[in-house]
Amino acid sequence: MIRSFMEGLVVPFINVVGESGVRYAAVQYSDDPRTEFKFSDFLNGTEVIRAVQEIAFKGGNTRTGAGLRYVADNLFGANELRPNIPKICILITDGKSQDEVEQTALKLKNQGIKVFAVGIKNADRKELDRVASTPTEDYSFYVNDFKILASLLPLVSQKVCASTGGILQTIGAYNGPSNLVFMEQGRDMLRIRWTAAGGPVIGYKIQYVPLTGLGQQIMSERQEVSVGSGETSTVLRGLKSGTDYLVTVIAQYANRIGESVSGKGRTQMLSGVTNFRVLETGPFFLRLSWAAELNEALQGYRLTYVARDGTERVRRIPGSQTTEDLVDLTENVSYVVRVSALIGNREGNSVPLNIQIRPPLVGSVSNLRMVPVGLGRIRLLWTPVPRATAYKLVIVNTQAAIPIQPVGNLRVIDSSQTRIRLEWSPARGSTGYRLIWRPAGGPERSQLLPAHINTYVIEDLQPGGRYDIRITSLSGNRESEAVAIVATTGGEEAQRTLPASETSHRVSGLHLGEQYTFMIRPLFGSISGAEVSISGQTVCPDAQRDVIFLVHTTRDKAYNAEAVQSFLSNIISTLRPGPETTRVGIAMYSYRGLHLLLLNRSNDLASLLQHIRSLRYEERSGNAIGAGINFVKNYMLSPTAGRRSGVPGTLVILADESSSDDATGPAREIKAA
User: Fold this and answer.
1) Are 189 and 256 found together in one domain?
2) What's the rounded Cα separation, in Å, for the pair 28 and 607?
3) Which of 96, 101, 147, 546 could in theory staple to 649 by disulfide, Cβ–Cβ 3.0 to 4.6 A?
4) Rounded to whole angstroms, how far apart are CA atoms 232 and 251?
5) Do 111 and 14 fall into the same domain?
6) Where primarily located (predicted)?
7) Is 587 in a helix, a strand, or coil?
């Protein structure tokens, strides 16, 4: 906060800093004063501000008198002064001096130096008045908390400018930046976006600092970047993985620092290791294996295994190796084995395995080898096992590894309101079939069928029901890949008698998105003529609308994936999407909001259905519907994302439980947007 205050005293003069203009120097004092930078070190305002930002504060006593004496002797000495130039000393202190200050301050004043005294918290107000130039109301200032130190900036800046004979040109109050959103949170980066500040902004300063587990700022690792006035987004790189960051966006004006907006974001955890597994086991050893994520900074791996009694052993493994043997294990002892990637100077998440070494019931043969002895014959040799009474020899026919052929051309050949007749082409070599069917959102049923059957009737179905049907070919205890189709039973039948003069008819009261079959036959008195039929699906009329679906996609809800994808596919198919008619967007929410598809990317039904099939339930647990609604409002309803002015908009939320945050307020705001 002191650094920001000092920056605020430089900003009004930033464009006139130079060898023949305004010059700055800084001294830090506690027990012993030291020069942070001299008048001649920096010749432009940007360099001065950067130097202020890099000041590292030290602890110690409060010897203000010694600090002022150091300034008088070293910075305002005869060799440093420019004739006929106003000279100013600004004292910033947060405590009562532990040495004499009045005489030293008087020495500065007698040299024609204007002394400003700024006190914070534990500073002595009477001491500030004695140090400051007169009248004290123009040179002595005090606040009781560091948090409100910035409130002194307008007053102090104006008094400093006036003491040099100038007039501070101020600008009106403008709204600062707002709506800071974390668009992307990677392992070592955060992508942020904000709403622009009002007024003649010349740029933005973005400060970001990591937080401890208790939420305290680690100021020694604070960083900042600057962007131009036309920018409202940026990427913060080089961050630590799995770490909370406090990010502040500050508006910059020509002669002052504007308001700011802050928010917290968290980088993803560093992993580097996947598919950790036991590859091979023996009486006293384990062979472990894992897969490595591609990373140029990978240095190696740390393998740790801990026995039940707490004994821990650690190994360092080269980055080129993804297997390791543990050969010093004890029978009937449980171990927790962990492996983690060492990437640069950081360590990724450890992946655990729980293992127990059990003694073998029978010893294993070793040194098995084959010796040819003639046409169609081989001799097998091996080292005997102590106390073995016999050996079992198993010969495996390698042809068994040939994949089982699935059935072909699975199709519906007939259906009614309660039954579906299926037919398929038999699979060669099959010993039977497994037929499985399930209504949308309902329980699964199955039927085993003999090999000579290639048709089957599924009965006792619901009228107008949609069923997922799949069939696999069986060969002994092995099963082929499934062949799947979707079939629908007929709905309740209705009929009407029309006058002979009609050649068209409008049918109303139908359900949106349903498939209907219409049959018509002429009547000649009591005799019916030949019947003709046509099938079609009800759809939305061609109209302009923007529709966004907000879907809950956390890992613990993955069992809903198939039902949600089926629901979205059916609904969107009826909307007849297109770039000039209905635009469709899809967003996901968990503890945060994410987008899958923007409105301006939904050009045709085929691509929409492909995106729905790619919907992944990979987010960690969270049910913040309010955060999801805010994400849609802030990110997906802008013209650049495809939202059209004057076109009706609809948000459809697919929720499966109560929201963990406030959803009412965001819902009210998005309705009014």
Assistant:
1) yes
2) 64
3) 546
4) 11
5) yes
6) secreted
7) strand
